[in-house]
Amino acid sequence: MSAPPSPGWTARNLQGGWTIRRRIIVATLLFNAACVVHSMVWQTSEAIAGTVITNAFLMAGGVIGSYVFGAVWDDKGKRGEP
Fold first, then answer.
1. Ordered DSSP codes for 8-77
2. What is the dihedral of CA 9, 73, 71, 16, to 10 degrees?
3. Are residues 52 and 35 in contact, defined by beta-carbon separation less than 8 angstroms?
4. Helix H or strand E encompassing 79
5. pLDDT digit string (tens) for 18-71?
6. Neighbours of 56 (CB within 10 A)
7. What pLDDT does residue 53 have?
8. Residue 17 — very low, low, confident or very high, per pLDDT cuts 50/70/90?
9. Cα–Cα distance between 52 and 35 in angstroms, integer?
């Protein structure tokens, strides 16, 4: 007899805390940092390196902005505010 399937990413798994969300955010920011370091050290084309670095900073800004907005929205929802 096989084991039941794992629940995966469901709303129930994400309820009650930001642990998984923070891990995803930190992993994304570390990936962006790795892209910037790689582009600065090993990239031979200046145009490609500039594009990668610009997009990595834009993505990091989007992730941080979404994190702050999501935290505020979640807190308001827990307090019952509209």
1. -S-HHHHTT-SHHHHHHHHHHHHHHHHHHHHHHHH---HHHHHHHHHHHHHHHHHHHHHHHHHHHHHHHH
2. -50
3. yes
4. helix 46-79
5. 788 888 889 999 999 999 999 999 988 999 999 999 999 999 999 998 888 888
6. 20
7. 92
8. low
9. 7
